[in-house]
Specification:
By secondary structure, the protein is of the alpha/beta class. It has eleven helices and 14 strands. The longest helix has 16 residues.
Length: 318
């Protein structure tokens, strides 16, 4: 794929004292399902709002769907669908009325309106709720309606800001089935998410930290960034366990996930034995110790920890 649909060079946004987006170089190809991840306040929303033409840029250049972001932001709007992080529906309007409202805003031709709202209702599995007020829908349904409203003018680029945050796992999966269908139909999707399983479903992922793109690659390659293998186990005494195992040879990094300890080690099977031995010796009860595959979550936490300690991350490719 060489057909870029979004290209930014040195894209920067300053809010008074805060540099929310810092010299971002990003190329997104047509048809990509691109994930944007990063801690709170990293600059994900600002990046998406810039790309949607909703914010003026402070420095740099960007083209979206062939238009210059600074000079032609009005022309960009009909090519993109932007779903905001916050509730963006009209609370007192019904599902159908919301769809019609967005259709009017986006100048959907009247003769196409009925068919398109019908299709989107089915697509979002909201047909039986079409007369329910938006604020009486469940959180997951609200997100699906917001997505349907975003799709009403059939945009070729979707910018979705944490569309599934706070949604139950079943609705989250449904939402992603919809996204996958759109992706398979050729829509370019940029989606920010705090969920690493979602990041794993993207064709490429960009990690933003303090406004900067730290790494941008396929999930597979991002996981490959971590040297070594992962050993994990569960323990009620994770604080004590962490101190013991961190000192062992071959343990490169320790991450805690509640009562689970995930250790990045140079050689999984070799270190697993030493780790279990050391835990037993120190009287620490544990269970489920095993060598496990590295997941996105560990890769990102490791990359962020490296950023925080000032170690530069290699392999940053566009
Ligand atoms: N309108 C604004 N005025 C001033 N500062 C802002 C404004 N919008 C965002 N910021 C700041 O810019 C930085 C990036 O914010 P942004 O909302 O883009 O982050 P985010 O990655 O979307 O975070 P979250 O995961 O919490 O949604 C933060 O420091 C934020 O406080
Ligand atoms: Mg945000």
């Amino acid at each position: 794929m060489t057909d870029s649909i979004i290209q930014t060079t040195g894209l920067t946004k300053d809010f008074k004292k805060t540099r929310a987006v810092d010299t971002l170089d990003l190329t997104i190809n047509s048809g990509e399902l691109f994930g944007l991840v990063g801690p709170d306040g990293a600059g994900k929303t600002t990046t998406l709002r810039l790309l949607a033409g909703l914010l003026s840029l402070s420095e740099g250049e960007a083209t979206v769907a062939g238009y210059d972001l600074q000079k032609q932001s009005e022309s960009i709007k009909k090519h993109i669908g932007y779903m905001a992080q916050q509730f963006s529906l009209y609370a007192e309007l019904t599902v159908l009325e919301n769809l019609r409202f967005f259709a009017e805003i986006y100048d959907v031709p009247t003769e196409k309106m009925a068919e398109r709202t019908e299709t989107l209702l089915q697509f979002a599995r909201l047909t039986e709720f079409k007369d329910r007020r938006a604020d009486h829908l469940s959180g997951g349904m609200q997100k699906k309606l917001a997505l349907a409203c975003t799709l009403i003018h059939e945009p070729e680029i979707l910018l979705l800001d944490e569309p599934t945050t706070g949604v139950d796992p079943v609705s989250r999966r449904e939402f992603w089935d919809i996204l996958t269908n759109l992706h398979l139909n050729g829509t370019t999707i940029i989606v920010s998410t705090p969920y690493m399983d979602e990041a794993d479903r993207c064709s490429r992922v960009g990690l933003i930290y303090a406004g900067k793109l730290i790494i941008c690659d396929t999930p597979h390659k991002i996981k490959d960034e971590l040297p070594g293998e992962m050993v994990e186990f569960l323990t009620d005494e994770w604080q004590k366990a962490k101190i013991v195992v961190e000192e062992l040879p071959g343990v490169l990094e320790a991450q805690t996930y509640g009562e689970a300890l995930h250790l990045l080690v140079d050689d999984g099977n070799k270190r697993l034995k030493q780790i279990t031995k050391a835990l037993t010796k120190n009287g620490i009860k544990f269970r489920g110790a095993r060598v496990a595959p590295i997941r996105m979550e560990e890769a990102f936490i490791s990359l962020i920890q490296k950023q925080e300690s000032g170690i530069s991350v290699s392999g940053n490719s566009k």
